[in-house]
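re: the backbone from monday

yeah here it is again, tokenized this time
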């Protein structure tokens, strides 16, 4: 039986080309926020029909981004909008966007209403270094990430008296230690542990930051750790806000 492996949060090549965007004022507090992404063959009138779909139900677009690659007959868009869920029920919204996607033979049409829809379920893969994992866990606790953490998996053993394990136990988040070797990556066991998750988070990102001869080893490590935490935090929020779309084989469109 085929199994679906969740998406993995990582860094890919990002495409920003002919990006057209506009933003409006903040929405009234009585309305609900929605996000829609659209990927289809390029054609005349797509933006007009997207706007009509939302406006016809009393919705209002607050921000919109469009990406059409040069010499490629494909169209990408991301729209932030507000609506009254009484006038535009969630089920009706799905039906309206489905009709739109059928009209333009869409490859991908996804609508998300953060206040009404389930949170993304994520599994976290961590290494020995704690800084990214700890920052992620505390950000999740503070409500910065609209996700539910199903488990943390690591190839590093952490004792019961460590800060990470105590935090996970307080929040009933399982911690799985998988001792891996070059001959045995434990991929089958890992696949079992991450079933029913939406995507995986690799809790450590490698980036490069400018350093000078004035930097000592401690300041260099601090800069590196801060950059990794910022990158991971932004990547998770961007994915949850539907800002990252697959483009070709190994690239992404980032709105």
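seq for it, each position gets an aa:
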């Amino acid at each position: 039986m085929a199994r679906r492996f969740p998406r993995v949060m990582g860094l890919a090549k990002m495409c920003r080309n002919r990006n057209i965007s506009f933003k409006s004022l903040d929405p009234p507090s009585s309305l609900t926020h929605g996000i829609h992404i659209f990927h289809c063959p390029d054609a005349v009138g797509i933006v007009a029909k997207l706007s009509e779909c939302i406006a016809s139900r009393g919705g209002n677009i607050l921000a919109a981004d469009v990406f059409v690659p040069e010499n490629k007959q494909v169209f990408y868009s991301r729209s932030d909008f507000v609506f009254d869920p009484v006038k535009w029920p969630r089920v009706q919204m799905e039906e309206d966007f489905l009709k739109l996607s059928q009209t333009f033979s869409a490859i991908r049409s996804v609508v998300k209403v953060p206040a009404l829809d389930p949170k993304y379920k994520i599994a976290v893969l961590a290494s020995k270094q704690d800084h990214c994992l700890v920052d992620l866990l505390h950000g999740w606790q503070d409500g910065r990430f609209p996700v539910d953490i199903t488990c943390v998996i690591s190839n590093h053993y952490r004792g019961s008296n460590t800060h990470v394990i105590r935090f996970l136990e307080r929040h009933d988040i399982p911690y799985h230690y998988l001792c891996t070797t070059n001959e045995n990556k434990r991929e089958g066991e890992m696949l079992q542990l991450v079933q029913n998750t939406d995507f995986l988070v690799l809790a450590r990102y490698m980036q490069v930051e400018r350093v000078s001869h004035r930097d000592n080893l401690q300041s260099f490590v601090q800069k590196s750790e801060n950059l990794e935490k910022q990158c991971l935090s932004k990547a998770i929020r961007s994915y949850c806000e539907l800002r990252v779309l697959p483009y070709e084989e190994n690239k992404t469109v980032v709105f």
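The chain is about 30% helix and 30% strand. The chain has a mean pLDDT of 84.
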